[in-house]
Design a protein that fits this description.
heterodimer; A: elongated; B: alpha+beta; four-stranded antiparallel β-sheet; 8 helices; 8 strands; 16% strand; flat
């Protein structure tokens, strides 16, 4: 019965970790997409968005596949060189790619029956 | 490269802690569910090591869940006979009153050669010497020899003997083990007196054992005992 205490602690930590990962990933992905919108609306600069993404990437790397994060880093790098003065198709394409990856990341964290199969 | 090194260190610590919490036994003594957990933990720990794109938290979380499951199952097995039987199975008597139960052997898919090998492993070379043989859930064979071939004990010849005292290591690799001295209720001064009697210093000793009757064994460093 002595081992019930560490087992209970482990269970609590696992539950906390699951909730934290879900909430953190959701929030950070939403914030990242907001940042891109701000960059499109010229509210923040290219440097700001890259720095902001670096911070978010470090937090996301605790729970998310690093390959996805590296892909997003590449797209954000591309975003900062495309023209945002007019409604650039390149910008739209890159933005949609980032959205897709963010969606995949969120789906991975979501508690859904299909993720068990 | 550095990340691989760090991940290896972290996962090594996590797996060691996991094994420590679960209280693992040697592979030969494990129950089936314990063996499953051990294999799974080793496989899961390898994934973040091999694939640096996987976050380490995934491996740690999976290992933690396995540790939790193992602890709960072991507690349930302790409390419930049904759970123990369900998870671990039950022992099977292979030889009863000197007669080999061939049906039981078929049920556990054991051949005669397997049986003979397991008996030899227990230093039994003649199957007719065995009164009872039980195949345990961890796959080992427990044997009770027939009375006529069992080794003689002091009881058999009505010989009075003293109880064995457990010898404890009191010096290991030149260092005194104070816990053992406390168990034997021997002071450090008394120990030094014993060593002086043998004309040795603590630092020269590889191993010294002592029991409550004062029986000592000393192996010096560099000795071929």
């Amino acid at each position: 019965m002595k081992r019930l205490i560490p087992a209970s602690i482990i269970l609590v930590l696992i539950i906390v970790l699951c909730f934290c990962s879900h909430i953190l990933v959701d929030n950070i992905c939403d914030k990242a997409l907001n940042d891109i919108d701000k960059y499109y609306n010229k509210t923040i600069s290219a440097q700001d968005i890259q720095k902001s993404w670096q911070d978010k990437k470090e937090k996301l790397s605790l729970f998310v596949n690093h390959g996805f994060l590296d892909e997003i880093s590449i797209y954000i790098g591309q975003l900062t060189v495309v023209d945002t003065d007019i409604k650039s198709p390149d910008f739209e394409t890159i933005y949609k790619n980032i959205q897709t990856i963010m969606y995949m990341i969120k789906e991975e964290q979501r508690f859904a029956p299909h993720s068990f199969y | 490269m550095i990340s691989t090194v760090l991940r290896t260190i972290i996962l090594y610590i996590v797996v060691t802690l996991a094994i420590r919490i679960m209280g693992k036994r040697q592979i030969g003594d494990m129950q089936p569910n314990e063996l499953v957990i051990t294999l799974l933990i080793s496989e899961i720990a390898a994934i973040p090591l091999q694939d640096s794109e996987q976050p380490i938290s995934v491996g740690v979380a999976a290992i933690s869940v396995l540790v939790f499951i193992e602890i709960i199952i072991s507690i349930l097995s302790m409390k419930s006979f049904f759970m123990r039987k369900l998870l671990n199975g039950k022992s099977v008597v292979i030889i009863k009153n000197g007669i080999v139960d061939q049906k039981a052997m078929r049920d556990v898919r054991m051949t005669v050669i397997d049986l003979i090998e397991m008996l030899r492993d227990k230093d039994v070379f003649n199957i007719s010497d065995v009164a009872f043989a039980v195949l345990e859930v961890n796959g080992s064979l427990s044997i009770l020899l027939k009375k006529e071939v069992q080794p003689i004990t002091p009881n058999d010849i009505e010989l009075k003997t003293q109880q064995n005292m457990l010898p404890l290591p009191v010096i290991s690799d030149g260092k005194i083990i104070h816990e053992s001295l406390n168990s034997l209720q021997v002071s450090t001064q008394k120990l030094y007196k014993m060593l002086k009697h043998h004309n040795v210093d603590v630092k020269q000793i590889f191993l010294m054992t002592l029991d409550r009757d004062g029986n000592q064994t000393i192996i010096n460093k560099g000795d071929e005992h």
